[in-house]
Design brief:
The protein has 133 residues and is of the alpha/beta class. It has a single domain, classed as 2-Layer Sandwich (Transcription Regulator spoIIAA), CATH 3.30.750.24. Helices cover 36% and strands 32% of the residues. It contains 4 helices and 6 strands; from the N terminus they run ββαβαβαβαβ. The chain has helices at residues 22-33, 57-70, 85-99, 110-116, and strands at 3-8, 11-20, 42-53, 73-79, 103-107, 128-129. Strands 5-4-3-2-1-6 form a 6-stranded mixed beta sheet, sandwiched between helices. It is globular. The termini are close together.
Length: 133
């Protein structure tokens, strides 16, 4: 599975690599929500710098409304490469999230993303792999 994750207290850090589908994100979320370290709401950081994500706009909107309804996160931040289609998808997510009152942002590097989450000085540890089902 091209998605891994790590809990650091009340921060969930995702790392996606390669081509990633919406279905794979949902499968990863199912694994995470069953993890004994999972608590909600939490801050979420999604590292997409090595990923290619193609999510239809309607699906992004549906995800945002689900996250708001379930109150799964306090703040969500993405890290992606400038100019990539994945960066554009992240921006679209943030715009939709803002519309429904969720705090979300996208950055080009981990330092700025962690600072926005008020977590300066955290290590850029690799995430633990999610076991395939």
């Amino acid at each position: 599975m091209p998605i891994s994750y790590l809990f650091k207290g009340d921060l969930l850090m995702f790392k996606a690599r390669g081509a990633v589908t919406v279905k794979e994100f949902y499968l990863a979320w199912d694994k995470i929500s069953g993890d004994s370290s999972f608590q909600q709401p939490l801050d979420t950081l999604i590292d997409l710098r090595e990923a290619q994500v193609d999510v239809p706009g309607q699906e992004i909107e549906a995800i945002v409304y689900r996250l708001k309804k379930d109150r799964l996160f306090k703040k969500m931040v993405f890290v992606a490469e400038r100019g990539s289609f994945t960066y554009a998808m992240g921006r679209m997510f943030c715009i939709n999230a803002e519309y429904v009152g969720c705090r979300s942002e996208i950055f080009l590097n981990m330092v700025d993303a962690l600072a926005w989450l008020d977590r300066e000085g955290m290590d850029d540890e690799p995430a633990a792999p999610i076991e395939a089902s």
